[in-house]
User: Which sequence fits this backbone?
C-alpha cells in the first residue's frame, strides 16, 4: 500500500480525508500537524491503534523536521492541507497566515523537492505533491458573472486569500521551474462533521442550540457555493491518482446559497431535531459586515468532471442534516474545541460588532 504524508490532518478537511483514506484503504498515512487552536487531537483518537496511521506534531515550516519525516517514512505522495484557514482571523492578525500559508508552504516545497530528487526512478515517477487551495484566490463575483474557472485571474481580497494565492503561485513555480510534480485544487466552501465552530455552519448550529444570537454579517445576501466535505476528499483522491502533473482543478458543489438561506435552513432542521418554544430563526441577528467581504463565489467544475469524471454526490439538504446530526451526537468533541482560547476569539470577533438590524 502507498504512504501519504498529509499535513494539517487534524483539522476539518484533513481529518475527514484521513478517516476516509484509512476506511477505504487508499493509503497508509503520516499526519504532520502543529495542533493549532483549530485542531482537536481527539478527532482522530480512535486511529491510535491503527498500524497504518502515524501522527507527528510539528510545523510545516520546520525544514529539519520535514527532512527527518521524509527520510523516515518515505512517502509516495504529499497532500498539503496545513494552513491558517479563517478569513476573520486573517483580518485581525494576518501574520500567522503569511508564516504558515506562504513561508510554511515554501519550506514544505523545498524539503519535498529535495526528497523527490533523490528518489529511485521507480518511486519518483508516480510521486505527487498535491496542494489544497481555495476559490477565494479568484476574488469576488457579481450576481450574473460566470463562475470561476481554472484560468480566471487571481484577485484575492483578504489576507487569507492573498496568502493562499501566494502559496498557489509557489506551487506552480516549482512545477514550471524544477519539473516538481505538483497538483493544485481550488475548492469552494466545505461543510460537514468536525468543522471548527468559528466557521458559519457549525457556529450557527451551536449558537442556536445554546439559544445564542445567530450573527449574520451585512445583509446576509453574500453567496457561497457549499460542498459536502466527503465529496471534496473524494475529489482530492481522484486528482492525486489520475491527474497529469502540473494541473489545477476547481472543485465545487454546484450549490450557491445566500448566507441568510443557509442560516434559515439550519434553523428549520433544528426546529425539527431540537425544538424550542420559539423558532430558532428568531435568534437571527444582522451584525456589522466583514471588511472587504467578498460578495459571491461560484465554481465552474466542468474540468474535473470532464477529465476525471468527478462530481459532487451529496445534496445540500441531505448534507446539512447529516452535519447537524453529527454535532448533536458529539457534545464532547464540541466541549473540547469550545474550551481554551475559543471564548477569547468569540469576544474578539463578535464583541465589537454592533447589532445592525433584527430579523
Ligand atoms: P482547519 O483550520 O480546520 O485545519 C487546519 C489544520 O492545519 C489544523 O489542524 C492546524 O493545526 C494545522 N496547521 C496550521 N498551521 C500549521 C503548520 N504551520 N504546520 C502544520 N500544521 C498546521 O482548515 P480546513 O478547513 O481543514 O482547511 C484545510 C485546507 O483546505 C486549507 O489549506 C484551506 O485553505 C483549504 N480549504 C478550506 C476550505 C473550507 O471550506 N474549509 C475550502 C477550500 C479550501
Ligand atoms: O470559499 C472557500 C473558503 O471558505 C475557505 O478557503 C476558507 O478556509 C473557509 O473558511 C471558507 O471561507 P468563508 O469566509 O466563505 O467561510 P465562513 O464560514 O467564515 O463564512 C461563510 C459566509 O458566512 C461568509 O460570507 C461570511 C458569513 N458569516 C460568517 C460568520 C463566521 C456570517 O455571516 N456570520 C458569521 O458569524
Assistant:
Amino acid at each position: 500500500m502507498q504512504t501519504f504524508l498529509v499535513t494539517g490532518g487534524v483539522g476539518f478537511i484533513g481529518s475527514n480525508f484521513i478517516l476516509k483514506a484509512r476506511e477505504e484503504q487508499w493509503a497508509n498515512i503520516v499526519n504532520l500537524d502543529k495542533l493549532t487552536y483549530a485542531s482537536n487531537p481527539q478527532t482522530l483518537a480512535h486511529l491510535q491503534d491503527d498500524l497504518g496511521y502515524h501522527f507527528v506534531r510539528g510545523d510545516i515550516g520546520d525544514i529539519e523536521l520535514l527532512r527527518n519525516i521524509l527520510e523516515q517514512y518515505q512517502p509516495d505522495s504529499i497532500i498539503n492541507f496545513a494552513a491558517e484557514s479563517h478569513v476573520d482571523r486573517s483580518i485581525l492578525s494576518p501574520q500567522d497566515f503569511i508564516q504558515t500559508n506562504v513561508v510554511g508552504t515554501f519550506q514544505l516545497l523545498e524539503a519535498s523537492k529535495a526528497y523527490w530528487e533523490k528518489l529511485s526512478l521507480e518511486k519518483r515517477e508516480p510521486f505527487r505533491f498535491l496542494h489544497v487551495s481555495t476559490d477565494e484566490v479568484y476574488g469576488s463575483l457579481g450576481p450574473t458573472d460566470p463562475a470561476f474557472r481554472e484560468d480566471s485571474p487571481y484577485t484575492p481580497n483578504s489576507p487569507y486569500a492573498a496568502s493562499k494565492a501566494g502559496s498557489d503561485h509557489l506551487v506552480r513555480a516549482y512545477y514550471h521551474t524544477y519539473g516538481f510534480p505538483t497538483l493544485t485544487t481550488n475548492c469552494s466552501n466545505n461543510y460537514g462533521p468536525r468543522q471548527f465552530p468559528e466557521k458559519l455552519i457549525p457556529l450557527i448550529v451551536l449558537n442556536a442550540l445554546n439559544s445564542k444570537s445567530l450573527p449574520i454579517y451585512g445583509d446576509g445576501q453574500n453567496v457561497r457555493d457549499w460542498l459536502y466535505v466527503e465529496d471534496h476528499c473524494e475529489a482530492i483522491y481522484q486528482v492525486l491518482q489520475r491527474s497529469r502533473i502540473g494541473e489545477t482543478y476547481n472543485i465545487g458543489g454546484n450549490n450557491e446559497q445566500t448566507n441568510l438561506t443557509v442560516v434559515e435552513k439550519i434553523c428549520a432542521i433544528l426546529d425539527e431535531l431540537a425544538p424550542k418554544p420559539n423558532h430558532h430563526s428568531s435568534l437571527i441577528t444582522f451584525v456589522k459586515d466583514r471588511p472587504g467581504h467578498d460578495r459571491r463565489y461560484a465554481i465552474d467544475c466542468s474540468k474535473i468532471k470532464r477529465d476525471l469524471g468527478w462530481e459532487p454526490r451529496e445534496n445540500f439538504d441531505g448534507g446539512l442534516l447529516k452535519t447537524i446530526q453529527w454535532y448533536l451526537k458529539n457534545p464532547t468533541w464540541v466541549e473540547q474545541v469550545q474550551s481554551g482560547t475559543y471564548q477569547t476569539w468569540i469576544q474578539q470577533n463578535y464583541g465589537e460588532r454592533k447589532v445592525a438590524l433584527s430579523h
Q: What stands out?
A: Residues 85-87, 134-136, 188-189, 199-200, 203, 215-217, 222, 224, 259, 290, 297 surround DAU (ligand 2) (CB under 6 Å). The mean pLDDT is 96. The first strand starts at residue 3 and ends at 7.
